[in-house]
Amino acid sequence: MNTDTHVSNRWSNRYSYILAATGAAVGLGNLWKFPYIMGENGGGAFVFVYLLCIFFIGIPVLMAEAVIGKRGRSTPANAAAHVATESGRSSHWSIIGTMGVTAGFLILSFYAVIAGWAVAYVFFAGSGEFSAAAADPATNAETIGALFTNLITSAPQLLLWSSLTIAAAVFVISKGVKDGLENAITYLMPALLLLLLGIMFYSAVVGDFASAFNFMFHIDFSQLTIEGVLVALGHAFFTLSLAMGIMMIYGAYLPKDVSIVKTSIMIAIADTIVALIAGLAIYPIVFANGLEPSAGPGLLFQTIPIAFGSMPFGDFVGTLFFVMVVFAAFTSVIALLESPTAYLVERQNMSRTKGAVVAGAAVWVLCLCSIYSFAGAEWTKLSFGMGGDIFEFLDYITANILLPLGGLLISIFAGWVIKPEILKEEFNLSDQHFSIVLVLLRYVAPLGILFVFANSIGLF
Ligand code: TRP
Description:
Layout: H1 14-25, H2 28-40, H3 44-72, H4 76-86, H5 95-126, H6 129-134, H7 140-152, H8 155-174, H9 177-206, H10 209-217, H11 226-239, H12 246-252, H13 260-288, H14 298-309, H15 314-347, H16 352-374, H17 390-417, H18 420-427, H19 431-456
Helix pairs in contact: 1-9, 1-12, 1-13, 1-15, 2-11, 2-13, 3-4, 3-10, 3-11, 3-12, 3-13, 3-17, 3-19, 4-5, 5-8, 5-15, 5-16, 5-17, 7-14, 8-9, 8-15, 8-16, 9-13, 9-15, 10-13, 11-19, 14-15, 15-16, 16-17, 17-19
Bound molecules: tryptophan.
Residues 24-25, 27-30, 104, 107, 238-239, 241, 244, 246, 332, 335-336 line the site of tryptophan.
């Protein structure tokens, strides 16, 4: 295999890397998924386990990915092959990169569709749909429910919103790492944080902050199930964007002197803080309006709009709220588009613009599968396996198979395959700290992941 190609892009400094990696990490996972899985899994105790998973498994795997990228200085598959051969091992370890890029590509095809929902909601909120629905309290919930159902089953609408999202991402990516990615993220991330804080204060004022705080931070282990532990671990991976080649490619753009350990910890903390603030922004509204904390995936798109409709400045704050969701989702979409683009540039010698357009077009085509799955088209129904449609299939193989398997291989690769000297040099840690990291990578992370994986494929 040809492994002598390299990426030459670099971030301007460690802050741009931290912002970009945090931008990739912060997304629908933090704003949409975390609040509802926390609600479904008992609040405080779930938050506690989730934090353990982030710190003891998420951070070591994040560090491992960044090391592979930085040491290999190539797109994920080549980077892994480089690092493996440097340690005297088989270049077939490139599989961890290939799997990651594949998973990322597949995920993007439906993530862009859900990001499109958020774009549509900016317009719904902006045009006063929420308050119009709330004008008749008797039918408020139904009207909002219908708004959501009509959107997600309308292929033309989904096509419009997700095409816009992908086109915008192609535009940013085609401009390159410094002018495109860095620039976009330098504005989007602070804007995102400001909006989030603003909305949290707003909900603290109009909502029931005390109940929300208590729900999230009062640890009651009797509320926790084994299923909840597994959900927490799976989500730790998803939210940190692990096992998808992203942190490897972003690591490959790291300037030489940036500390992987410090930046990884900062990224994980920033991501976690955003998720917690999202909870503190959403739950006061949920409790003040007597809504159900365990409403599930509809929490963001169905429950919250009901509340916005009847709150002071609800349409305005609702619009800002969904603008924030769009920003968060968009920084993840561009991250996801970066690795297929970098692959085309590095391996197929395309220009960046051409690579971005080709990758974007391929994702768009795959996107159609998810769009028509939501719309219920006959051709998206699968007759094999457990049935379902193409969207469910893509979601299932990425989240439940490729992602845990990738994470497992990455921790094994870093813990057992890379020469410890190389790892130690890259991490630049004292002996004592290094041995802690090594134990996490060698034992804690793989065994934890194996546990989730075995469960998700139904072994127990
Ligand atoms: N971390 C993102 C979120 O919380 C989702 C995600 C998973 C992602 N893998 C990714 C984003 C890879 C960008 C790249 O929503």
